[in-house]
Amino acid sequence: MPENISIERRAFKHLGSRTKGDKVIWTVVVLLAIVSLLSVYSSTGLLAYKLYKGNTEIYLFKQFAFIVAGVLIIYFAHQVNYIIYSKVAQILILVSIPLLIYTLFFGVRMHEGSRWIRLPIINLTFQTSDLAKLALIMYISRLLSRKQDVIKDFRHGFLPVILPVAVVCLLIAPANLSTALLIGATCMMLMFIGRVSGKHLLLCIGITLIPLFILVLTAVIRHKSGDAVVAKPKTETRSHLFARVDTWINRVENFIYGNQTAKDDDNYQVNQAKIAVANGGWIGLGPGNSRQRNFLPYPYSDFIYAIIIEEYGLIGGAIIMFIYLVFLFRSIRIFKKCPFAFGAFLALGLSFTLMIQAIANMAVNVNLFPVTGVTLPLISMGGSSFLFNCLAIGIILSVARNAERIEGEAAEELVN
Q1: Which tens digit of pLDDT belongs to each residue from 279-293?
Q2: Residue ranges of the domains in the chain?
């Protein structure tokens, strides 16, 4: 027995020696993985019971498999020198754009949107926007690091950086406007930190606000005119590229006017999420005791934060927010410590992506933002988004690992 314990200790010690990077971020990953298992198991019980004839653990095992795969992705990604990702970024951005175009016209349609493509042989779907988001942040980090000498120049500095951002966001927007806006916001923040001219950034923000203003104005006019939102019949002649426009207007109208609008799925989701939050109070109903999981659509993905608050209360919800903030602060620390511009921009850009996505999801769940299809990073039920988020964390840890190595070598030189 003591020999077995000794072997296990040596195995953990070896694994710890092989695991580099920011230990706090590793701890954040473990904590969010535990929360994910508890929340997904709780929120999928009824669904699993209906679909799998009483087997309520099926989604728990699936989520556990996703977490294991995600941790492996983080581990192997963080073992790679982050400089290699600079070269990989060029390939990924060239692959992502054709994939987004293909998805836009020939993608698998789910939930009234064309965001997915089906992978042959394994017959699984994944969102190409997840790959494009990761590729874009990596590519923008590369460009910002290489163009610091001319970054204030509009033609030679700003245009080469903003063009890939515009192309990717415009290709994602027709099927997934919220993701396109979040990606654009992340890139704007990264460019601001990368010393891009303020007037150039304001120009981009002004151009982006024009269609958003038209969207809000259309929602207000529709509400004032009293036109009920009626689902249009799906016909072959109607292009699915613009089929989401009614949904956007609908969601903005529901967000502005709440229960004054006509009943629809979006209003139902928001109302059920509000009930879940109200049920939770300060300390919650306890693990596995959610009531609204049986009524709230997508309680395991888009609205999992509402289930967390219902079961663990506002205190539990605040702890989740604190964990994400710790992750952001540790990433900012990596940004400050990294001696090279590419690694610094890469770590900060990817952390901004995850943090903005988390804030958007939590804001939707407490009705501070219109309904979107954004998941809660590392907590919502596994899918392509979960695995790509793990890859992003692995890259951040790769930057941290190399920054620590360089810092250690510099310390040794000073001692010698």
Answers
A1: 988 988 988 888 888
A2: 21-79+264-416, 85-262
In 3D space, the residue among 136, 195, 145, 203 whose CA is nearest the CA of residue 170 turns out to be 136
- Other Cβ atoms closer than 10 A to 415: 5
- AA letter at 244: R
Type of residue found at 285: L
Residue 114 dihedral angles phi and psi, to the nearest 5°: -110, 85
Q: Is 231 exposed, middle or buried, given 0-12, 13-18 or 19+ CB atoms closer than 10 A?
A: exposed
Residue 218 buriedness (CB in 10 A; 0-12 / 13-18 / 19+): middle
Task: Tell me: pLDDT of 265 over 80.
Answer: no
| Half-sphere exposure at residue 372, Cβ-oriented, CA atoms within 13 angstroms | 23
DSSP assignment, residue 175? Answer: T
Q: Are 327 and 32 in contact (CB under 8 A)?
A: no
Both structure tokens of 399: 């930057």
Residue 332: other Cβ atoms inside 10 A: 15
3 state DSSP class of 113: strand
- Neighbour tally for 363: CB within 10 Å: 15
Residues 6+ apart with CB under 8 A from 258: 267, 270
Q: If you average pLDDT over every residue of the chain, what do you get?
A: 82
Q: Which two tokens stand for residue 245?
A: 């426009």
User: What is the 3-class SS of 204-255, one letter each residue?
Assistant: HHHHHHHHHHHHHHHHHHHHHHCCCCCCCCCCCCCCCCCCCHHHHHHHHHHH
Listed residue (344, 375, 345, 346) closest to 359, CA to CA = 375
How far is residue 21's CA from residue 393's CA, in Å, rounded to a whole number? 11
Nearest one of 178, 186, 204 to 141, comparing CA atoms: 186
Helix, strand or coil, per DSSP, at residue 118: strand
Q: For 15-39, how does the pLDDT look when each residue is reduced to its tens digit (9 = 90+)?
A: 455 567 779 999 999 999 999 999 9
Rounded distance, CA 283 to CA 232, Å?
43
Radius of gyration of the chain (CA): 23
DSSP letter string, 23-55: HHHHHHHHHHHHHHHHHHHHHTHHHHHHHTTT-
